[in-house]
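seq as requested:
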Amino acid sequence: MIELDGLRRTYRAKGRPVVAVDGVDLAVRAGEVFGVVGRSGAGKSTLLRCVNLLERPDEGRVTVDGVELTGLAGDRLRAARQRIGMIHQHFALLSSRTAAGNVAFALEVMGVGRAERARRVAELLDLVGLADRADAYPAQLSGGQKQRVGIARALAGRPKVLLSDEATSALDPETTRSILGLLRDLNQRLGLTILLITHEMDVVKRLCDSAAVMRDGRITESGRVTELIARPGSELAAEVFPLGPPPVLPDTTVVDVTVTSDDQPFVADLARRYDLDVRILGGAVEQLAGGRAGRLRLALPGNPEQTAPAVAHLRATGLTVEVPA
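struct tokens:
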């Protein structure tokens, strides 16, 4: 649905070139929620604006729903953009217009007639749970309600793709959960493909089917969230399960075991099979959009050579096992 090939975007700052997006390749499947996560300055926002060509990349191609946007200009580009909705971090609502008026504005720009506009606005506000706030102005709405108006407006043109620019970072945790629930519902009900950027790992855990980690303008890893969690050395896995540096224990091997399926009694099996006094040093289980995953830090008695058969057995059962340095 979304394909980015060799995307590069450079600015000039104080007379010097600054590379914001550096040769990014990315593929988002139709109907999935894909998150790009990274720290401030990683290039996430620039990447997102390149997807709908609010910023035109210096190099590379952007293809959305089979249409190469980088090959379009003028009216053809504007028409293609109508199939891509966008929601913003700070809502970007018109303060002089009501909730209904803000949604209607997008339809006015598209040239939709008055009667159809009124019907569509009512339908959209009902879809986002704001049918009773149609006449309220932005100043009379909570942050979550403002974002729901922004989402309704983004859906005005019946887009197939929805872009989200840090849509929940200005919201409190409870409201964030509500907005993420709404986005998942819209994804499933309307078949929307959602590409979002965020610095909040909780958003990736709760909402995303797939994700990419971005650093210094480059994608350092990408894939299904459950696959990344199980990938040795994964940056995303380290953020989801921040176990920290391992303790230094004499004559002990510390291992981190990642589990991406339920009902694997591997600790008890390991203790019985190798007659080991296995200790659990820490761990966590997370409910992800694509299923449950967990990571345990275990202490196995003996040095790495002595515990090698036990570690090999864990890996042979399909578990991801890492020996932290």
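The chain has a mean pLDDT of 93.
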